[in-house]
Amino acid sequence: MPPPARSLSSSQPSPKVQESPSTASLQEDDAAHAEAPQKTPSIGLEAIEEKWVRVVDSVKRKRIALGSLLVEGWPTRVEGVNLELAFDSKNGFHISSVERQAAVIEEAIEEVYGVRLKMRCVRTEKEKLAGVRKMPGPIDKRAEFAKLEKEDEMIKEIVQKFDAEFIK
After folding, report:
1. In this structure, is residue 84 part of a structural domain?
2. The model's pTM
């Protein structure tokens, strides 16, 4: 014979459902996330500039062509989670290529600095970029060759003897 049915009245305490440890911890995690405000990464421009070469090297290991384009830019501003990279105004191809592959660069930034930043490219004049850039830009090899030819007698003699010229 089945046990008699109980009536649910307010005088009897309701049966407690025991929570599993995983359910309880999930509820605690949800409460912690709800209470904790979303933190904005606090990293300054100087810290970014200090290790920027590492970011470029990391990108080059993953995508060498992208890393070669990234060398032409330089971080110029950090606002909250946004990182601004400046490129010479004539480097439109660089900018569009870098922006298309921003996820690769953002991952490299996170690897090096431990914070996730959203990257954005801007155009600037070459002179302004040279003023903020902390690492050497690309070398004008033709100008270097001409300088060596004028300053070094041995180089000058080799160029004359073999009718040498600069080839890119």
Report:
1. yes
2. 0.56
